[in-house]
Design a protein that fits this description.
Distance between the termini of chain B: 55 Å
Number of domains of chain B: 3
Order of helices and strands of chain B: EEEEEEEEEHEEEEEEE
Largest sheet of chain A: 8 strands, mixed
Radius of gyration of chain A: 19 Å
Oligomer: heterodimer
Strand content of chain A: 15-25%
Strand order of the largest sheet of chain A: 1-5-6-11-10-9-8-7
CATH architecture of the largest domain in chain B: Roll
Strand order of the largest sheet of chain B: 1-6-2-3-4-5
Number of strands of chain A: 11
Structural class of chain B: mainly beta
Largest interface: A-B, 34 and 23 residues
Radius of gyration of chain B: 22 Å
Helix content of chain B: under 10%
Shape of chain B: elongated
Strand content of chain B: over 45%
Number of helices of chain B: 1
CATH topology of the largest domain in chain B: SH3 type barrels
């Protein structure tokens, strides 16, 4: 067994430098750095996120999958521009681009519009990575352009046809997958590999993939940053309506049960905060390890993390 | 039967698909942050050697294959059947000439091989990388010709023929690479 890091010293030094750059970028933009707990009584209710429950001194607590809930509670309590660099844990996520425990940068800004939020994310990527401004493209146009497919309006039989035309090895259970899962697969397997040496902000996700973003029923005010085909950040013009979130949590839990997963607690202090009034705001979460992969020009997350899971 | 869930998928896993044993030779985890997890696998059929590309979604599972690798000694051949004995248990296993394939060329009494058992039955045989074989017959080479670029076929004790340098003579022992069937060197002269 090796005690040594999987990342080179050079990459660990680069990490330190980029983290310092990020902190000064946020300070200059007027953000306050905050710290919130890794352990929480609450957890995000997401169909495809599997939070870890730990038992401490007779009490069950969740390891956060992101600092979203705690940070929105601060926003609802009067902090209007905050960021945090912390750890998150997502069970079952391990691979070349995933480490179960990873570093996440998350920020919230009150009064920031959907457009301004995408703009801020782009300028952050430009500043930290020295890239030219990312293209802005809707989720619908992305699929049209790279797969000749309309993800919102085309039938699923056309999804199947495109997948076989492209010679994709679709999952065995393809026919039983719902529309969003098929889109997830096509994006990951057919589109992302085509985005090498490009930077893109994809926005207006299908409403069914809104997560915690505001939605108009057809599309959600949700956006993601892709650089070199790597999914780097996920942002929302935030959902403010507590009733809407309660409905989504209930639907999500139903899907989780169908998928064979446990239901997660639907009530939370975030909902309490939203009941009391969450101001209009935007928020983004960015994967720091993947940002470092791009900065270091490496293909594996192990090259930028000192001690990944198997060496932790 | 043991089952592997997708979160246990990794390179080196031995699984069963449509009744055949497979070795997972590559596994790529793909997951959009908010989306479904997919596991892109390359699997090698342990009987036929063919490679299969399969994608699984989070929550799927595969049956574990009861596959075991054991050390065996070649005992003898009876018609189309090759008989081996496991080194530790002295259990005897039979392989058909089809399963043994070209490896018969390297098998002499006592040759130690590795054998893969699936559900307790032998499916593949791998001889050692190098074997030493006695030359039983060949045309005489020109005296003093030690060049290795002049070659000729020689017949060894297993009945197989190999292409060797012209200086090899009957009674020599030669070393052969079983992965390529190539002559490596002369080990001894009678």
């Amino acid at each position: 067994m090796s005690f040594r890091p999987t990342a080179s010293v050079k990459n660990l030094e680069l990490r330190s430098k980029k983290l310092a750059q990020l902190r000064s970028h946020f300070a200059e933009a007027g953000f306050v750095e905050v710290e919130t707990p890794l352990l929480s009584h609450d957890t995000v209710v997401d169909r495809h996120l599997h939070p870890v429950l730990v038992s401490i001194d007779g009490e069950d607590l969740w390891l956060q999958t992101s600092p979203e809930f705690a940070m929105k509670r601060l926003v609802a309590s009067g902090m209007d521009a905050i960021y945090q660099i912390t750890r998150a844990v997502r069970s079952g996520e391990n691979g070349k681009l995933h480490n179960t425990e990873f570093t996440i940068l998350e920020w919230y800004k009150v009064g920031q519009s959907y457009e301004a939020a995408r703009e801020f994310l782009s300028s952050l990527a430009e500043a930290i990575l020295g890239i030219s401004p990312p293209e802005q493209i809707t989720y619908q146009d992305l699929f049209q352009q790279f797969m000749d497919l309309d993800p919102i309006n085309d039938s699923e039989s056309l999804f199947n046809r495109r997948a076989s035309e492209l010679g994709l090895h679709v999952p065995d259970a393809w026919e039983t997958l719902d529309r969003d899962s098929k889109l997830d697969f096509l994006l990951a397997d057919a589109i992302q590999p085509q985005l090498q040496s490009r930077a893109m902000v994809v926005y207006d996700y299908p409403a069914s993939q809104a997560a915690l973003a505001a939605s108009n029923g057809e599309t959600a005010e949700r956006f993601e940053l892709f650089i070199n085909g790597l999914e780097l950040a996920n942002g929302y013009h935030e959902l403010l309506d507590a009733k809407e979130l309660r409905d989504r949590n209930r639907d999500t839990n139903e899907q989780r049960l169908v998928d064979g997963n446990d239901a997660l607690p639907e009530e939370s202090r975030l909902l309490d905060a939203m009941d009391s009034g969450l101001p209009d705001c935007s928020g983004v979460a960015l994967g720091i390890d993947r940002l470092m992969m791009i900065a270091a020009g490496t293909e594996s997350i192990r090259d930028v993390i000192a001690f990944p899971m198997d060496r932790a | 039967m043991a089952v592997y869930k997708t979160n246990e998928f990794r390179k080196g896993l031995k699984v069963q698909i449509d009744g055949d044993p497979y070795l997972m030779i590559e596994m790529n985890f793909v997951k959009p942050g908010k989306g479904n997890a997919f596991y892109k696998c390359k699997l090698r059929n342990l009987v036929r050697g063919t490679v299969l590309d399969r994608t699984y979604k989070g929550g799927d599972s595969l049956e574990a294959a009861d596959v075991e690798e054991v050390g065996v000694q070649y005992l003898y051949r009876q018609g189309d059947t090759f008989v081996f004995m496991e080194n530790k248990t002295y259990e005897q296993y039979e392989l058909s000439s089809e399963q043994v394939d070209d490896n018969w060329k390297y098998l002499k009494d006592g040759t130690t091989c590795s054998m893969v058992l699936y559900n307790g039955n032998p499916i593949t045989l791998t001889p050692p990388n190098h074997v030493e074989l006695l030359v039983e017959y060949c045309e005489p080479g020109a005296k003093g010709d030690t060049a290795t670029n002049v070659t000729k076929p020689v017949k060894v004790e297993t009945g197989a023929e190999f292409i060797c340098p012209a200086f090899i003579e009957m009674g020599n022992v030669i070393r052969i690479d079983t992965r390529s069937g190539d002559y490596i060197e002369r080990v001894s002269v009678k």
